[in-house]
Amino acid sequence: MSTAFRDAFAEDNNQEEEFKPLEPGTYVCSLLEVETESNPFDQEQQTCLTYEIKEGNAAKRRIWDTIKHTDNLAWKAARVYRDMKLEGDPDTWDEWASAVRGCKGRVYEVSVTQREYNDKVYINVNRLNPCTDNAPF
């Protein structure tokens, strides 16, 4: 067993680092995952989009955008759909999620802001802009 491996388990190397929230701005990201599941708290269906930052100091960090399948959040689903430049109008949440799932691997500029709630900082995805070649990273 290598010394580096053993050193990783040393007590002084296992100090929990404070994870700093992503700074507001625009990041070049690939759409890594699109998963639809039940929200564990209220059992409403939701779709979670996971983006991975591809460039700069934040490379390899991830951004999550969760959209609950409720009428009061249809505006957010429509914004994502339009920002992804998808064509047509889905008739159901399932059709919307399926179309968005078809964008996995595409590259977007993802604009984010921060918001605070109960002394915790959250990241909000505000806009998406497809990169011109949209080739997977």
Name the features.
alpha+beta, 5 strands, 18% helix, globular
What report would you give on this structure?
It is a single chain. This protein has helices at 3-8, 74-83, 93-101, and strands at residues 25-38, 45-53, 62-68, 107-117, 120-130. With 137 residues, the chain is of the alpha+beta class. Strand 4 (107-117) and strand 5 form a beta hairpin. The model has no long low-confidence stretch (mean pLDDT 89). It is globular, with a radius of gyration of 18 Å. Helices cover 18% and strands 38% of the residues.
Instruction: Indicate the multimeric state.
Output: single chain
Q: Strand content of the residues, in percent?
A: 35-45%
- Residue share in helix: 10-25%
Overall number of strands: 5
Count of alpha and pi helical runs: 3
Overall geometry comes to globular
User: What is the terminal-to-terminal distance?
Assistant: 35 Å
Helix and strand content put the structural class at: alpha+beta
Biggest β-sheet: strands ordered side by side in the sheet:
3-2-1-4-5
Poorly predicted segments: none
Q: Using only CA atoms, what is the Rg? A: 18 Å
- What average pLDDT do the residues reach? 89
Largest sheet at a glance?
5 strands, antiparallel
Output the helix-strand order. HEEEHHEE
Write the layout of secondary structure elements.
Layout: H1 3-8, E1 25-38, E2 45-53, E3 62-68, H2 74-83, H3 93-101, E4 107-117, E5 120-130
Antiparallel strand pairs: 1-2, 1-4, 2-3, 4-5
